[in-house]
Amino acid sequence: MSLIKKGRSLVDFYFKDFDVNGEETNIRFIEKLESIFDENLASWDENNPTFPIYKS
Could you name the domain of life of the organism this protein comes from (predicted)? Predict the structure, then answer.
């Protein structure tokens, strides 16, 4: 997967302890994703997951 700088910094922040907590569900990351979807009025589709990204 290729991420833009903003996406990479988001993953780096929420998965900085991945080696230690890799098996655990990252609740804080899920909550952050939910807030991003809510802020952008985007819905989640299990069959076609897309991230709310807009070209500027």
Answer: Bacteria
